[in-house]
């Protein structure tokens, strides 16, 4: 449940996380989007992408805590 909560964000934040995930994991944007969509529907997200997604979420949250967008 906690993983699913981490994926619920405003559309703008979600888009930025998706772009960060794609760039930082060297995965095409559509492949990253597909993995996240599968994860949201209960399927397993590839481990490498899980790690990059967690890093993207953490970086975005740190930016919000500082009052910046990224």
Mean pLDDT: 78
How do the SSEs run, as a string of H and E? HHHH
Indicate the radius of gyration in whole angstroms.
11 Å
**pLDDT < 50 runs, ≥5 residues:** none
Strand content: under 5%
Please bin the fraction of helical residues.
Answer: over 70%
Q: Looking at the structure, what is the overall shape? A: globular
Record field, number of beta strands: 0
Helices and strands: which structural class?
mainly alpha
Tally the helices: what do you get? 4
C-alpha termini separation: 26 Å
Q: Sheet bearing the most strands, described?
A: none
Question: How is the secondary structure organized here?
Answer:
Elements: H1 2-6, H2 11-25, H3 29-40, H4 47-66
Helix pairs in contact: 2-3, 2-4
How would you characterize this protein structure?
The protein is mainly alpha-helical and 70 residues long. It has helices spanning 2-6, 11-25, 29-40, 47-66. Helix 2 (11-25) packs across helix 3 and helix 2 (11-25) packs across helix 4. The longest helix is centred in the C-terminal third of the chain and has 20 residues, at 47-66. It is globular, with a radius of gyration of 11 Å. The termini are far apart. The mean pLDDT is 78.
């Amino acid at each position: 449940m906690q993983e699913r909560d981490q994926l619920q964000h405003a559309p703008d934040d979600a888009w930025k996380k998706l772009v960060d995930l794609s760039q930082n994991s060297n995965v095409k944007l559509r492949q990253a989007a597909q993995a996240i969509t599968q994860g949201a529907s209960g399927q397993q997200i590839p481990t490498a992408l899980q790690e990059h997604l967690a890093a993207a979420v953490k970086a975005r949250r740190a930016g919000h805590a500082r009052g910046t967008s990224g």
